[in-house]
Amino acid sequence: MNDLKKIALLTSGGDAPGMNAAVRAVVRASVYYNTEVFGIYEGYKGLIEGNIRQLSVRSVNNILGNGGTVLRSSRSPEFRTEEGRKKAYSELKSRGIDGLVVIGGDGSFAGAHIFSKEFGLQVAGIPATIDNDIAGTDYSIGYDTASNVVVSCIDKIRDTALSHNRLFFVEVMGRDTGFIALRSGIASGAICIMMPERKTSVEELVALLRKGYRNKKSSSIVVVAEGNENGGAYELAKSVREKYNDYETKVTILGHLQRGGDPTCFDRVIASEMGVGAVEGLLNGNSGFMTAYQCGKIHEEPLETSYTQKKQLNENLVKIAQILSI
Ligand code: ADP
Questions:
Q1: Using CA positions, which residue lies closest to atom 24 of ligand 1?
Q2: Ligand 1 atom closest to the CA of 109, numbered from 1
């Protein structure tokens, strides 16, 4: 172990359930390894403003199962500037902090990496975003919880759809990626999953719905990622209605429901593994890595992977969704 004495941590970008479990793990692992630990409130904005407090084991009591982030999060345009990052570094330096853990998405990691290279600070990233769009890790903290929230909502929608021969368009989060849509669509038996990465025309969708109707499907659910190229759920429902009306059509936008709620067991466990992994990596003298989850194990992946590569959809899941929707 190297001579790192003080670690600080922050949560940044979009919040995700399970961030608190990661905060707890970083704090407890730091204390376990006799390293002082500091919480930075409101992400990079709080770092620039010096909104930093020392934490103890007891500071993170009873947060493991709570959604959101007790450290709060923010977006900080100032941290994108050299001037902003200089101010941020002086806040760390004046407290003798030599290691930083950033819990967030690829944008937060890009910032952390630049910061680390500019000032020779050791940094570690913990991937957390409900979108699961961080390249280099199979799972990001929050994705499992968000997908489970979506599935539980669609199960409820299915009850009413079945009772009335209805066609539901359910819009889920995913401006650029279809990870939530794909996973929750498979788990809830969607007839079609509309994702930004896959082009499905309105004509193809209508053909699928007609086939389903002929096959005596009494209800159909179409899961639509918000970044779908034919528009969100409202636009899509309108376009379909113009061509096809065997079913009564309804639209549900799940919105910010997907960000909240208690983290699932899976998210709590990977957050705990990643939090401990980040601290151990820093204490081993490593820097510029994120704690990535691949094939059931946590490893250190270069931070660059997260912001220079685009994460691809799992093609096997795309195929499975098609096979099972007949
Ligand atoms: P996420 O981490 O969820 O992807 P953002 O992309 O909004 O969220 O990034 C969060 C914050 O990280 C930004 O508000 C900014 O302060 C910082 N950041 C993002 N990209 C950069 C960058 N290229 N250089 C410096 N800071 C960045």
A1: 111
A2: 2
Q: In this predicted structure, which of 92-96, 248-252, 309-313 has the lowest mean pLDDT?
A: 248-252
Examine the pLDDT at 1 and tell me if it is beyond 70.
Answer: no
The answer to the question of residue 324 being in a domain is no
For ligand 1, residues with CB inside 6 Å are 12-14, 44, 75-76, 79-80, 104-108, 110-111, 114, 129
CA of 158 to the centre of ligand 1 (A): 38
Could you read off the pLDDT of 65-101 as tens digits, one per residue? 999 999 999 999 999 999 999 999 999 999 999 999 9
Do 149 and 235 lie in a common domain? yes
CATH code for the domain of 90: 3.40.50.450
How does pLDDT run across 91-100, given as a tens digit for each residue?
A: 999 999 999 9
The CATH number given to whatever domain includes residue 183 is 3.40.50.460
Domain span including residue 298: 6-142+263-308
Neighbours of 83 (CB within 10 A): 10
Q: Which residues are catalytic?
A: 131
Displacement of CA 279 from its chain's centroid (Å): 21
Q: Buried (b) or exposed (e) across 136-151, using 16+ Cβ within 10 A? A: bbbbbbbbbbbbbbbb
Question: Same domain, yes or no, for 136 and 268?
Answer: yes
Output phi, psi for 262, to 5 deg: -70, 135
Both 164 and 124 in one domain: the answer is no
Q: Please count the other Cβ atoms lying within 10 Å of the Cβ belonging to residue 312.
A: 9
Residue from 27, 21, 57 nearest 39 by CA:
27
**Predicted TM-score (pTM) of this structure:** 0.96
pLDDT band at residue 162 using 50, 70 and 90 as cut-offs: confident
Residue with CA nearest ligand 1 atom 14? 75
Question: Mean pLDDT throughout 245-249?
Answer: 86
Full strand arrangement of the beta sheet holding 122-127: 52-55, 36-40, 6-11, 99-104, 122-127, 289-294, 297-302
